[in-house]
Amino acid sequence: MKRTATVIGAGPNGLAAAIVLAQAGLDVEVHEAAAEVGGAARSGALTLPGFVHDLGSAVYPLGISSPFFAKLPLKEHGLEWVQPPAALAHPLDDGTAVMLEREIGATAAQLQALDTFGRHVGLAFQIVDDILDQTATPEELGKATKKDAEKGKVTYPMLLGLNESRRQAKEQLSHALEALKPFEARANGLRALAEFVVERHK
Known about the structure:
Blueprint: E1 4-8, H1 12-23, E2 27-31, E3 43-44, E4 53-54, H2 67-70, E5 86-91, E6 97-101, H3 104-135, H4 138-141, H5 147-150, H6 156-160, H7 162-179, H8 188-199
Parallel strand pairs: 1-2
Antiparallel strand pairs: 3-4, 5-6
């Protein structure tokens, strides 16, 4: 007697399981409650004529590298892998995003730009922190001031003076903003953060 298998759900995982079972020699039945198979990977016309929309999940950047898919004659059944310039994007809390580009160099350039931005903003923060510790009042900062001098800590104002320290903070801000140019409007949140770091009063 031939073995049988029943698969509940005709989404990508259910269909993949059914294929594997069928390849192993089982008689397979797939049951799907929806009118069409595909699950979250289905597409359909939702708006204007001629436009096809993803009904659930939208992007499968690693699908093309799937060992399972590679063994199937998907092209013979009309599958065409679409290669966008950026495979995926990761949104950040400030409203910007980092994109995984098809070109390794483009992705690396974005990461390098963010690293450069972070280093300059971090240095600007330290410079301004040193300045405020020397010039602000405890009431303004909400904490004790002049602590660095009391501990004999080497600070930027001690080494460079207040005016030069302020200039250096602005220079670091300029470098940080320059690093964000490739991101255009996507980095407006980071620009605002950098400016706040340098212009803050506490």
